[in-house]
Amino acid sequence: MSSHPISVAPMMDWTDRHCRYFLRQISRHALLYTEMVTTGAILHGPRDRLLAFHPDEHPVALQLGGSDPADLAACARIAEEYGYDEVNLNCGCPSDRVQSGRFGACLMAEPDLVADLVSAMRSTVSIPVTVKCRIAIDEMEEWSTLEGFVARIRAAGCGRIIVHARKAWLKGLSPQQNRDIPPLRYDLVHRLKAENPDLDITINGGIIDLDEAARHLEVVDGVMLGRAAYKTPYVLADVDRRFHGVSDSGPTRREIIDRMLPYIEARCLEGVPLHAITRHMTGLFQGQRGGRAWRRHLSEFAHKSGAGPEVVEAALSRIVPEREIFQAAE
């Protein structure tokens, strides 16, 4: 098993610094990933706004999008200087914008280039350089594509690979459809691990809870949760006990909110709108009685001018029954 058996996927528009801080209050050990950040944005854009993070977010990895070795090496070095624990290369995103920039899933058709990118980054930093990919793209045969791609980047020194166990169709499917329509091929990721026993393999795609994650961890080294971790974040509450040997049970939902309140107050004083933080918290009571009212209250009041932590406290005290607030991690 990897030192990071459970991680939360990089998700555009979702896993920003406020989301990651919130998820960190649920699990102290799950590895968190940033949204994908392009090399051009880092080298020519508002770098600190893009890369700054709270120290409590560790362990945290930066996912990069790009295809130029020198640019990726420079950005990897910047990531290390900022204190990231890992730098990850995106070879899995299927969006048109990513394809036009010659990065993301289209790079799976250029394993030699990806090997050069990995080598360039590894020569620059001491933190791990990892790759997130699909099993194949478009009409390419799945196993031979995955096997060949991994062989090249492994030879370049990539020691950990995260595989989204679906093919990406760059022609004909939207990014949303690419997350659901191509069939999941967990068997190919399991085979990849069996044929590369000393390579750290993390599986991603459609995994919804820790019981399912545990079954995969009997075969592979790590499991990456995506939408399940975002839409039902309390799924992470038992990660530390089950996979990191922590003796106590996970935090209650009330404890998670209590941990967030000082952060919310500090960010609001800095001018961060409340809804920029609470939009990531709406799923905390998913499946619980009062969960819909919790979401509705935050959606209605967090956008108001001057809104602060009192909105969250009001949502909690008015809506969530006491027995739900103090319910321990299940």
TrEMBL record:
Stretches assigned to the DUS-like FMN-binding domain: 8-317
InterPro entries: Aldolase_TIM, DUS-like_FMN-bd, DUS_fam, DusA, tRNA_hU_synthase_CS
Gene Ontology molecular function terms on file: flavin adenine dinucleotide binding; FMN binding; tRNA binding; tRNA-dihydrouridine20 synthase activity; tRNA-dihydrouridine20a synthase activity
Active site: C93
Keyword RNA-binding: yes
Cofactor: FMN
EC class (word): oxidoreductase
Annotated site residue numbers, Interacts with tRNA: N90, R179, R292, R295
E.C. numbers: 1.3.1.91
Record's catalysed reaction(s): 5,6-dihydrouridine(20a) in tRNA + NAD(+) = uridine(20a) in tRNA + NADH + H(+); 5,6-dihydrouridine(20) in tRNA + NADP(+) = uridine(20) in tRNA + NADPH + H(+); 5,6-dihydrouridine(20) in tRNA + NAD(+) = uridine(20) in tRNA + NADH + H(+); 5,6-dihydrouridine(20a) in tRNA + NADP(+) = uridine(20a) in tRNA + NADPH + H(+)
SUPFAM superfamilies associated with the record: FMN-linked oxidoreductases (SSF51395)
Binding sites annotated in the UniProt record for FMN: P10, M11, M12, Q63, K132, H164, N204, G205, G206, G226, R227
Entry keyword annotation includes Disulfide bond: no
Keywords in alphabetical order: Flavoprotein, FMN, NADP, Nucleotide-binding, Oxidoreductase, RNA-binding, tRNA processing, tRNA-binding
Function: Catalyzes the synthesis of 5,6-dihydrouridine (D), a modified base found in the D-loop of most tRNAs, via the reduction of the C5-C6 double bond in target uridines. Specifically modifies U20 and U20a in tRNAs.
NCBIfam families in the cross-refs: PRK11815.1, yjbN
Family, similarity comment: Belongs to the dus family.
Name this protein carries in UniProt: tRNA-dihydrouridine(20/20a) synthase
